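Design review, sub-item: ligand-bound model
Attendees: FS, YL, KQ
YL presented the inputs for the zinc ion complex:
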Amino acid sequence: MTFLPETRVCPRCGERSRIITCGDSDGTIVSACCEAVIPDLNDSPTVLIEDGKLVCPFGDCGAADQVIELDVATRENRLSIDEEGTIVAHLGDSEFEGDGFECQQCARSVSMPGGDEIVHV
Ligand SMILES: [Zn+2]
Ligand SMILES: [Zn+2]
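KQ shared the predicted structure:
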């Protein structure tokens, strides 16, 4: 945790507060008073998990279960030529590539705890 020389208005309590980086791997910048994420100083802060819900990390939003995955399905279909000379595309190696995550409530990008590893069901 590092104290930064700037102060900001805390989005949670509205007081002017010192800002700190919290100890996560992203170095998310939060208010020292409430540890609320300062929206304009962070690109994609990590989603919080509270009571089994995914909670928007932005201090002035905090919506629960509003996180969506922006998904881009990419497919690599290998081409080959079969015995009859027909060009064949091999389907099946499809791969879903997440394009990031976003809070639907405030439309800002967020990231997932644990290196964006989620299970698609
Ligand atoms: Zn505060
Ligand atoms: Zn939000």
